[in-house]
Amino acid sequence: xxxxxxxxxLRSALRTQLVPVANLSSKPAKHVISAGEQAIAMTxxxxxxxxxxxxxxxxxxxxxxxxx
Length: 68
Hints:
Layout: H1 3-15, H2 35-58, H3 60-65
Organism: Eleginops maclovinus
Protein name: Cytochrome c oxidase subunit 8B, mitochondrial
Subcellular location: Mitochondrion inner membrane
């Protein structure tokens, strides 16, 4: 695939209109979430996402030296 063809493909992909996936609304929230609940949710998300990757990075040398 040549560069002009790739450039044309990228431009046509950017021009297309995507169908909105989320149902957006301008109404106020039905349930108010407190700052404490937000902090707990963010902590859980960060732990779930960064915890496993941190574990692997912390034990990378063990995985390299493991002999079966």
